[in-house]
């Protein structure tokens, strides 16, 4: 038990480092972006010299870089992400209000992708049937199709033609269906192939032969024994999964005009809203780091042997 | 056996696989019967079709396999007609299967209890709520201590022996009438092995019919009533266990028996063939003639033309071979302690029944030249093993080593061990798993620092040196691992693997050293044809040869061999042991040889160290220690060995027979490996 606590403490310390690192990178990158942040802050209008200088001073842009970096870190550690230039609201509030819709979207897409992929993999692994060929072809298609294109297609078909789901926006469950499905499609193909490979490897293991020799039926062998082993490679994919979900959210939220972190980020980048961009980077890094820890804990649940290995 | 209906009847079973290179006939016409309370053993080398035969009996040979038989019946029910659903009712309920490696045969992410309960659930034997309790009961029946605790643990948390018991418990949970045990004891320590055999013997006494698959003849001798020897998918000889092991008639059976390492063959070769590329055990399905012809020293034209007929060998005179009096030609004598072959339960089949059983079993061999005298295995060039010089290469001086356990406390792994290793000498390190053998070896290799004490290399300090001080001498001590596959980079060719050890890293550098590499391969009986292959493209025996060649590349003074043959079957093991002997004769390296197999130690070593719980219990000349052990533990170890006392007469008089022990009747310790049967007496 002591080792687990110790392990967790180390992982959390590491996570803090990662977040600070991400913030630093975002801070540095924004210094390199051409254009004057003070102008952005002041909106389109050409300000007078005096007003400009005052704003510049207020924002701290007249200080040397190291001082500004120090202040930035200090604020960050206090949990203060600063003010958005464009929205004139605290960054933390903006992100706070936009986080939930994105999390909803990501979870829904992940759940959908997982269930569909698991069904595809379990029904086709180790079988040379026509159904498997169809499934494989569909997966390849899903992997290679751009998400926005699928999104537009779904939107046209289900919303404009069939009026089944709302065209855009909406916090309702119905409003979640199309965006989540679009986001899921990019994942299903990869999930299904990884799981199928894991299943096929597991099905060749002696313990599966043992299980069958006990009279266990095929479905039970797959669900009870093999599937869990197939999840292990999925866990190693978790970084890619979170990245795809967050990255995909930017696109999907824009297409379906949904609220969310993705859309805010897109606007913030376009408008050079430095504090907001940095804030999103910090939040994303935090999510990544925490999820990674969660995933490693999950690893130990799925595969108890890991307790011996992971320290 | 035809007198009454057997429990299991197999007639002309054939299994072939569709492979890329065309059909592969893994089993070609195997027939046998099995009665309740009887144990039939199938022995044969790797790839001979033993496992496929067993799997055919539960309908699990796999997709792409074609199974046919004239008759395949279980208690009168035709198994060939079963659909998948019906098969499921047979598996686990009427026929249980136990596989070799319990670690991989139990689902690593599920608890042992859940695995056992699965059988119960599949056949609705016990209501759901009662299953966990029943699983605990079954573990207890399989003599697992603390069954309730074990049921909650996962396979990797159990020792090898407990795991194997748990696996057996899961196979027996449905109370099947037939148990197929596929190498149930391979890779287990001798004492654990003995316990597992006891467990199986008890089940047989309850009337369970056991099909025991093994390549270990000693195990077979301890449990089986009858033996069928398989080669290349066919049975080449069958008979009562005593008959067959004492007077093997088929050349292959004789080769197998001769391959068992033990004292009789000290200084002689074990394998008939030196090169790794002995004929493939599996040929095209339609090839006529004796499959063994390519390897058989007696082969003649007739053998290649037509399948040899079954020839009834007849029975030895009653009472013959039961004691030390018969060093008869080609005879093998069994010294069998411990396991009581109690009479089967009341309803047991006719094939057994106390002392009369053996007489009822036909002994047959499929061979044209059954009565030819068996040529002596090539007697090794008289190995002057005694004449090693007296200089000490390695001196281990009272080393101690402890590790931190999971609970944080320090656990001693090696406690005050001292020994010496001299030029050209082989010292065996004997002990069960966890006895500190590998830790000792790692200290000799300079991979671990002793907490106390010291290791000296040629009189100079070797332990407690900085790595830079040690580096120039590192090449002097090389390791031959148990599993070379794990030690080799899978992307490298053999040429590159050995080139690396010659300090020629990289493909091109290795190619420049090709001459030397081929020379090294020659030492271990391989030729240049393996150069471009990767480790995964080699057989187990070839791989171990490459590992030895690689260890020899930097011209070491010492080879540390960590269970180098325990993953190999008898025939391959025999070849590799011969390679070690050749290498030592040619190069005079000293060897520290770790093994849990007494026979192997006896055959290869000059001196032996016996370890338990990190302590060196005794050491001395191998003959002395294994024949007249001074320590109780050594005696117990010796008693636990399922013993196949090989024949003095197997190697025709003159070569190697001379060192057989006299029939002194002094008991277990004195008849190790010689198996003159002394002190043990008739088995039944
Ligand atoms: N599923 C399969 N597909 C193709 N060939 C197979 C398959 N299973 C087994 N074989 C082949 O059938 C032959 C017999 O294999 P089998 O496993 O029965 O050998 P074995 O006697 O049990 O050997 P071992 O002692 O190594 O376990 C081998 O040549 C093997 O390669
Ligand atoms: S039939 Fe011929 S080749 Fe086959 S085992 Fe007998 S003697 Fe050897
Ligand atoms: Mg096998």
TrEMBL record, chain A:
Q: Which organism is it from?
A: Frankia nepalensis
Record family assignment: Belongs to the binding-protein-dependent transport system permease family.
Q: Where do the ABC transmembrane type-1 domain residues begin and end? A: 99-299
UniProt keyword annotations, A-Z: Cell membrane, Membrane, Transmembrane, Transmembrane helix, Transport
Keyword check for Membrane: yes
Q: Which Pfam families match?
A: BPD_transp_1 (PF00528), BPD_transp_1_N (PF19300)
Major location (coarse)? membrane
Single GO term (MF):
dipeptide transmembrane transporter activity
- Keyword Transmembrane helix in the entry? The reply is yes
Report what the protein is called.
ABC transporter permease
Q: Which Gene3D superfamilies match?
A: MetI-like
Automatic annotation (TrEMBL), chain B:
Compartment(s): Cell membrane
ABC transporter domain location, by residue?
A: 8-257, 394-638
Q: Name the UniProt key words of this record, in alphabetical order.
A: ATP-binding, Cell membrane, Membrane, Nucleotide-binding, Transport
Give the membrane topology, semicolon-separated if more than one.
Answer: Peripheral membrane protein
GO BP of this protein: peptide transport
A Gene Ontology cellular component where this protein is annotated is: plasma membrane
GO terms, molecular function? ATP binding; ATP hydrolysis activity
Top-rank taxon: Bacteria
Q: Which InterPro entries match?
A: AAA+_ATPase, ABC_Ni/Peptide_Import, ABC_transporter-like_ATP-bd, ABC_transporter-like_CS, Oligopep_ABC_C, P-loop_NTPase
Q: Belongs to which family? A: Belongs to the ABC transporter superfamily.
UniProt name for this protein? ABC transporter ATP-binding protein
Species source reads: Frankia nepalensis
Which taxonomic lineage does the organism of this UniProt entry have? Bacteria, Bacillati, Actinomycetota, Actinomycetes, Frankiales
């Amino acid at each position: 038990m002591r080792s687990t606590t110790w392990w967790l403490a180390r992982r959390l310390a590491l996570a803090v480092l990662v977040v600070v690192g991400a913030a630093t990178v975002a801070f540095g990158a924004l210094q390199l972006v051409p254009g004057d942040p003070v102008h952005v802050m002041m909106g389109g209008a050409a300000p007078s010299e005096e007003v400009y200088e005052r704003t510049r001073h207020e924002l701290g842009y007249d200080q040397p870089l190291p001082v500004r970096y120090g202040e930035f870190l200090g604020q960050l550690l206090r949990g203060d992400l600063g003010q958005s230039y464009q929205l004139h609201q605290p960054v933390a509030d903006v992100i706070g209000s936009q986080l939930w819709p994105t999390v909803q979207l990501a979870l829904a897409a992940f759940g959908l992708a997982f269930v569909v992929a698991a069904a595809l993999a379990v029904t086709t692994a180790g079988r040379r049937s026509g159904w498997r060929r169809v499934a494989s072809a569909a997966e390849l298609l899903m992997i290679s199709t751009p998400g926005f294109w699928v999104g537009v297609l779904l939107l046209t078909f289900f919303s404009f033609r069939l009026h089944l789901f709302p065209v855009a926006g909406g916090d309702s469950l119905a409003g979640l269906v199309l965006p989540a499905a679009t986001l899921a499609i990019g994942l299903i193909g990869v999930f299904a192939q990884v799981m199928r490979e894991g299943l096929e490897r597991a099905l060749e293991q002696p313990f599966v032969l043992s299980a069958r020799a006990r009279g266990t039926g095929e479905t039970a062998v797959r669900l009870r024994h093999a599937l869990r082993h197939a999840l292990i490679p999925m866990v190693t994919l978790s970084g890619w999964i979170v990245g795809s979900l967050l990255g995909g959210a930017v696109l999907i939220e824009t297409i379906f005009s949904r609220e969310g972190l993705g859309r805010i980020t897109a606007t913030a980048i376009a408008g050079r809203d430095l504090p907001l961009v940095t804030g999103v980077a910090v939040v994303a890094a935090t999510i990544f780091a925490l999820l990674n820890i969660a995933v490693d804990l999950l690893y130990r649940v799925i595969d108890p042997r890991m307790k011996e290995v992971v320290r | 056996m035809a007198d009454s209906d057997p429990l299991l009847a197999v007639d002309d079973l054939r299994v072939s696989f569709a492979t890329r290179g065309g059909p592969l006939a893994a089993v070609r016409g195997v027939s046998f019967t099995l009665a309740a309370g009887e144990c039939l053993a199938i022995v044969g080398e790797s790839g001979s079709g033993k496992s496929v035969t067993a799997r055919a009996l539960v309908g699990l040979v796999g997709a792409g396999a074609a199974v046919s038989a004239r008759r395949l019946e279980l208690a009168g029910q035709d198994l060939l007609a079963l659909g998948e659903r019906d098969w499921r009712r047979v598996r686990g309920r009427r026929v249980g299967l136990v596989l070799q490696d319990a670690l991989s045969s139990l689902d690593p992410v599920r608890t042992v209890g859940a695995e056992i309960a699965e059988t119960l659930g599949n056949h609705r034997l016990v209501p759901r709520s009662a299953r966990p309790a029943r699983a605990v009961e079954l573990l207890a029946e399989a003599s697992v201590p603390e069954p309730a605790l074990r049921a909650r643990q996962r396979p990797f948390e159990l020792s090898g022996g407990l795991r194997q018991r748990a696996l057996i418990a899961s196979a027996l949970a449905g109370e099947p009438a037939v148990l197929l045990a596929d190498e149930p004891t391979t890779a287990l320590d001798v004492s654990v092995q003995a316990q597992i055999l006891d467990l199986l013997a008890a089940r047989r006494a309850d009337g369970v019919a056991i099909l025991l698959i093994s390549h270990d003849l000693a195990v077979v001798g301890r449990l089986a009533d009858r033996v069928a020897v398989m080669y290349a998918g066919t049975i080449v000889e069958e008979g009562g266990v005593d008959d067959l092991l004492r007077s093997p008639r088929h050349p292959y059976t004789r080769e197998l028996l001769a391959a068992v390492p033990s004292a009789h063959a000290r200084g002689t070769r074990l394998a008939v063939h030196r090169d790794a590329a002995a004929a493939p055990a599996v040929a095209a399905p339609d090839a006529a003639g004796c499959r063994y012809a390519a390897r058989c020293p007696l082969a003649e034209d007739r053998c290649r033309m037509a399948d040899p007929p079954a020839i009834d060998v007849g029975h030895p005179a009653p009472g013959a071979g039961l004691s030390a009096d018969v060093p008869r030609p080609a005879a093998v004598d069994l010294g069998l302690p411990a396991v009581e072959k109690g009479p089967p339960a009341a309803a047991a089949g006719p094939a057994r029944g106390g002392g009369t059983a053996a007489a009822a079993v036909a002994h047959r061999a499929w061979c044209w030249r059954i009565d030819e005298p068996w040529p002596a295995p090539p007697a090794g060039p008289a190995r002057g093993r005694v004449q090693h010089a007296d200089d000490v290469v390695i001196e281990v001086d009272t080393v101690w080593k402890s590790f931190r356990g999971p609970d944080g406390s320090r656990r001693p792994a090696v406690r005050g061990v001292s020994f010496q290793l001299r030029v050209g000498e082989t010292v065996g390190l004997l002990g069960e798993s966890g006895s500190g053998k590998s830790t000792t070896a790692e200290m000799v290799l300079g991979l671990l620092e002793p907490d106390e004490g010291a290791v000296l290399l040629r009189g100079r300090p070797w332990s407690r040196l900085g790595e830079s001080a040690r580096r120039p001498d590192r090449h002097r001590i090389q390791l031959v691992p148990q599993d070379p596959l794990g030690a080799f980079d899978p992307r490298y060719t053999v040429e590159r693997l050995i080139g690396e050890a010659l300090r020629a890293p990289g493909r091109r550098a290795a190619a420049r050293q090709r001459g030397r590499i081929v020379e090294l391969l020659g030492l271990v009986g391989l030729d240049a044809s393996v150069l471009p292959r990767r480790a995964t493209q080699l057989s187990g025996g070839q791989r171990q040869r490459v590992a030895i060649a690689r260890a020899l590349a930097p011209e070491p003074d010492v080879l540390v061999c960590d269970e180098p043959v325990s993953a190999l079957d008898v025939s391959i093991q025999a070849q590799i042991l011969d390679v070690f002997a050749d290498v030592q004769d040619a190069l005079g390296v000293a060897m520290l040889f770790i093994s849990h197999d007494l026979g192997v130690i006896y055959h290869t070593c000059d001196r032996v160290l016996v370890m338990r719980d990190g302590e060196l219990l005794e050491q001395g000349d191998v003959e002395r220690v294994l024949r007249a052990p001074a320590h109780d533990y050594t005696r117990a170890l010796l008693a636990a060995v399922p013993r196949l006392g090989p024949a003095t007469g197997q190697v025709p008089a003159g070569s190697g027979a001379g060192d057989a022990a006299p029939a002194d009747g002094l008991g277990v310790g004195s008849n190790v490996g010689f198996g003159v049967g002394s002190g043990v007496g008739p088995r039944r």
